[in-house]
Design a protein that fits this description.
Length: 271
């Protein structure tokens, strides 16, 4: 097992553990205001200090972790649930009108970044975590569709696929029983990468006010609130910023380690 996988798993596990524990316990109520103790630096009472409303930063970081993880996880799930079947269908129907329709639809979605999609959704339905999930999920669909199609195309000319055709298996059955299992490792790694990008996207959307709304803590909104107070309370920006950096770093290292672990060709090449 590579060092990247071990370190990435350790960092990611810490974040997940903090999010899970926040359902049962936090040092303080994350929404409780304590104005007399506002803008306190890290100390023995508040390990990560307090914000401009006197709220405990550690409690907010813990609850913010579950917000970021939930948004990114559901968004990636939407992307995989819709993108993988589309990619398998496009690969199976290579060169047909259906393949062209799916790929041009992907190009259309790629033309609009997740932030633009979120703005459009927000203009219609209003800001909120659900709309952030929809925006990030929509953007993930063409990512998984393209990767699935590209990986599946290289398998459709292989001998074991031809044997399955001779055995009388249909296109859908071959895709489900033979194509998908052989590209699952690639999709798992890509899912890990998109999960880290989902964390960043959620933070970005919350930063501009399109993500989770108060009183639900969000790392991105914590950064937005801190931008006018960095000079005299730098911990307000450093703490959520470090949380985002460590989470994304951990997920990227884990994805790199999983790629090496699941692909024996890369593992052999590096030994």
């Amino acid at each position: 097992m590579s060092r990247n996988l071990i370190l990435g798993t350790a960092l990611s596990s810490i974040v997940v553990l903090a999010a899970v524990v926040s359902f049962l316990w936090t040092p303080y109520d994350h929404a409780a205001l304590d104005i007399p103790n506002k803008l306190k630096p890290p100390n023995a009472t508040h390990w990560l200090g307090t914000d401009h409303f006197g709220r405990d930063m550690l409690s907010m970081i813990m609850v913010g972790a579950r917000t970021s993880i939930a948004v990114a996880l559901v968004a990636v799930g939407i992307g995989m649930a819709a993108g993988i079947p589309l990619g398998l269908t496009a690969a199976a129907r290579k060169g047909s009108w259906l393949d062209e329709l799916i790929m041009r639809g992907n190009d259309l979605v790629f033309a609009f970044p997740s932030l633009v999609i979120a703005i459009l959704i927000t203009a219609i339905f209003g800001a909120g975590a659900i709309n952030a999930i929809i925006a990030i999920g929509i953007f993930n669909i063409p990512v998984f569709a393209r990767i699935t199609r590209g990986a599946a195309l290289s398998l459709w000319e292989r001998e074991f696929i031809m044997a399955a055709r001779v055995a009388g298996k249909g296109t859908a059955r071959i895709s489900a029983e033979h194509i998908l299992p052989n590209i699952a490792n690639l999709l798992i790694v890509q899912g890990t990468i998109q999960f880290s990008l989902g964390i960043l996207a959620e933070a970005g959307l919350s930063y501009v006010g399109l993500g989770a709304q108060p009183p639900t803590p969000s790392w991105g909104r914590m950064l937005a609130d801190a931008q006018t107070m960095v000079s005299f309370a730098p911990h307000l920006a450093l703490i959520p910023g470090c949380a985002i950096i460590l989470t994304v770093l951990g997920l990227n290292l884990m994805g790199d380690g999983l790629r090496d672990w699941l692909d024996p060709r890369i593992r052999v090449a590096r030994t």
